[in-house]
Write a structure and sequence with these properties.
The complex is a heterotrimer of chains A (162), B (87) and C (217). Chain A is α+β, with helices and mostly antiparallel strands and 162 residues long. Helix content of chain A is 35%, strand content 23%. The mean pLDDT of chain A is 91. In chain B, helix 1 crosses helix 3 (45-62) and helix 2 packs across helix 3. Classes of the chains: A alpha+beta (162), B mainly alpha (87), C mainly alpha (217).
């Protein structure tokens, strides 16, 4: 199964700190959240944004959960270099624009929620969260999920993921 | 700790994350709680840094010099051991 | 190495060590006495007023261990068994001396609901993001590497641990300084996993706060 994985800038797992090598199979028992190779489907991407993005091939026992996939085997197949500083900044600005659009649509109530353009320093993950939260304030949990789906579509498009 | 509302990462506030940190580091959160916990860490650098700091604190504690066995105690204990083996 | 492998290795080491002790091997005895001293002292210190009395408890415990060596079945690790003996002797002694035991049941009520971080560090209820950080903690990785693992910092950590409330000090010493497992600490001290976790977290949180003040300066 093809999936995606965000890693820290130095190639280690965000939470496991495991050091990944391109092309090398990694094996682990599957215990969702605690053990196993964790990865994203395209719809999961906005939740797990990190500094570096890779395509990953998953094999063995595969468990799909709400916001991620966990497998007993996985290997990084390629680095998605399109996820670079420029892409991250563009994503951040997109989220800031969406946040402003949503916040002002509710008149004064959410005015103080909208981050200014300079807030892109907060990073794509934080800004995506803010935009989705504002959507939720206006339209509930469904609106939150929809906003996240919009963000996923933006990423798939920008990064040319199949 | 009450279950966070909804399925989304913002169910936890940073205050709750900081209190749950012990269980996360020990691996005793449920699968659902762990996912929500990590999702929060993913967008919140403050909490991610806090977790790192807790881990660093534990690592530094491991380097703290342990108490050394005092010589008189060592001698007394060895004598007690000899008495037992000879009995 | 997986956790199971480590446990198997320790169990293997234990049975070899116990065999040597039963044979009267003095080198083995000295090794284990030195190696177990910090953890035995930590447990004893939870019940004694002074370090000197704690040493007496440790000594008494070793007499108990030596006498009971032939009966040790290896159901727990050697260290766990030894620490349980220390705790029992310390408790008995404290009761005999009619002193209140500082933390006979690791009573958490004393510092009930102690937050890991002061509430002022978080946004208030009127903020769009209530409960979130006002300002983020500093990433210690951005500090010059020598600063974090310096002698100065280690001294600070040592003092911070020494100043902790007794129950927190015992748990962090056993878990982090000595390296006992959670299960071992619970077995030795007779506390629940939950209580042990809470005490460890509070201890680490307090030491972290001291470190933060020092490193941010």
């Amino acid at each position: 199964m093809k999936a995606y994985k965000f890693l820290a800038g130095d190639g280690t797992g965000s939470f496991s700190r495991h050091c990944w090598t391109l092309g090398e199979w990694v094996e682990a028992d599957v215990d969702p959240c605690r053990a196993g190779v964790h990865a994203c489907r395209p719809s999961d991407l906005p939740y797990w944004l990190g500094p570096a993005l890779y395509e990953i091939e998953l094999d063995g026992e595969i468990v799909e959960t709400g916001l991620k996939v966990v497998a007993s085997r996985g290997r990084l197949t390629r680095c998605i270099s399109a996820w670079d500083d420029e892409a991250r900044e563009a994503y951040s600005q997109m989220c800031i624009a969406r946040a402003a659009e949503l916040a002002t649509s509710a008149a004064d109530r959410l005015a103080k929620w909208a981050p200014p353009p300079t807030a892109s320093a907060g990073g794509p993950a934080l800004l995506g969260f803010i935009a989705a939260r504002i959507a939720e304030e206006l339209g509930g949990l469904d609106a939150y999920v929809d906003e996240r789906a919009r963000q996923a579509d933006w990423l798939v498009d920008r990064l040319a993921l199949t | 700790m009450p279950e966070p509302l909804g399925i989304h990462e913002h169910g936890y506030t940073c205050r709750e994350i900081v209190d749950l940190a012990a269980e996360y580091v020990e691996g005793t959160l449920t699968a659902n709680e762990s996912t929500l916990f990590e999702l929060h860490l993913n967008f919140c650098d403050g909490c991610l840094t806090f977790i790192d700091q807790i881990r660093d604190t534990a690592r530094l504690a491991a380097h703290v010099a342990e108490h050394e066995l005092p010589e008189p105690l060592r001698a007394d204990l060895l004598q007690a051991f000899r008495d037992w083996t000879r009995a | 190495m997986t956790g199971a492998d480590t446990e198997a290795r320790v169990a293997g080491d234990d049975s070899a060590l116990v065999a040597r002790l039963r044979d009267g091997d003095e080198r083995a005895f000295e090794e284990v006495v030195r190696s177990f001293y910090p953890s035995m002292l930590a447990v004893a210190r939870g019940y004694t007023r002074t370090h000197a009395v704690a040493d007496e408890v440790v000594q008494e415990a070793w007499v108990g261990v030596i006498k009971g060596l032939n009966r040790f079945e290896g159901r727990s690790s050697l260290r766990t068994w030894v620490l349980q003996i220390v705790a029992n002797i310390a408790r008995t002694r404290a009761v005999r001396e009619a002193r209140s035991v500082p933390f006979s049941t690791f009573d958490l009520d004393a510092d009930q609901g102690e937050p890991a971080v002061e509430p002022e560090r978080f946004r208030g209820p009127d903020d769009p993001y209530p409960g979130h950080w006002r300002s983020y903690p500093t990433d210690w990785r951005t500090l010059p590497e020598q600063r974090l693992v310096s002698t100065e910092t280690l001294e600070l950590v040592k003092h911070a641990i020494e100043e902790l409330p007794e129950s927190q000090k015992i748990v962090i010493t056993l878990r982090d300084v000595v390296g006992c497992s959670a299960v071992e600490v619970c077995d030795a001290l007779g506390v629940t996993a939950e209580n042990q976790r809470v005490l460890l977290h509070r201890a680490r949180a307090r030491v972290r706060a001291r470190l933060e003040r020092h490193l941010d300066a």
